[in-house]
Design the sequence.
């Protein structure tokens, strides 16, 4: 009698998690060879490990939970966008360096994760969550222009992230519509 559950150590999973571990090792190796500008602290490594672990978990869940290509694409786009939003915001800040407005980008993503968990990643809810975060990107740009006059807002970056979140919402919407027809 054979079982149909996936192997824990199939090649794709090993390659995926191994590449994330290798990415985490790059700054550690760079610090050993005195690469200029690479001065990570323990908290930097913890933050990177949490973000890379999140990214790996998103891919695992997308492969396991998605019922179709559009739903899987939605999970992957949302996961990668969350990852890059958090990473870029922590690295240099989306709106200036160390501005209080940047905290809202973290809170939007973290709120989206919590809401996604509470709604069990259902595509109906995911389209609204991703759509709200897309709108929130642009709203925070306008808040920054009003709260910090004369401060440069990276509208290109905000529009890029809003487009990615909107794309994830669109994928979930297509998935919901496809499931209703079948």
Sequence:
């Amino acid at each position: 009698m054979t079982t149909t559950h996936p192997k824990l150590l199939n090649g794709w999973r090993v390659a995926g998690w191994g590449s994330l571990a290798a990415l985490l090792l790059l700054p550690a190796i760079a610090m050993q060879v005195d690469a200029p500008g690479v001065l990570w602290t323990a908290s930097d490594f913890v933050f990177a490990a949490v973000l890379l672990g999140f990214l790996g978990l998103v891919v695992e869940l997308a492969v396991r939970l998605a019922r179709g290509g559009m739903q899987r694409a939605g999970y992957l786009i949302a996961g990668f966008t969350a990852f890059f939003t958090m990473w870029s915001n922590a690295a240099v800040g989306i709106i200036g360096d160390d501005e209080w407005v940047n905290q809202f980008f973290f809170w939007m993503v973290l709120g989206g994760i919590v809401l996604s968990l509470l709604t069990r990643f259902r595509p109906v809810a995911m389209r609204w969550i991703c759509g709200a975060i897309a709108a929130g990107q642009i709203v925070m740009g306008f808040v920054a222009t009003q709260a910090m006059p004369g401060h440069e807002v990276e509208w290109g970056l905000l529009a890029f992230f809003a487009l990615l979140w909107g794309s994830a919402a669109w994928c979930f919407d297509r998935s919901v519509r496809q499931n209703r027809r079948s």
Residues 69-181 form one domain. Residues 33 and 182 are 57 Å apart (CA to CA). The mean pLDDT is 89.
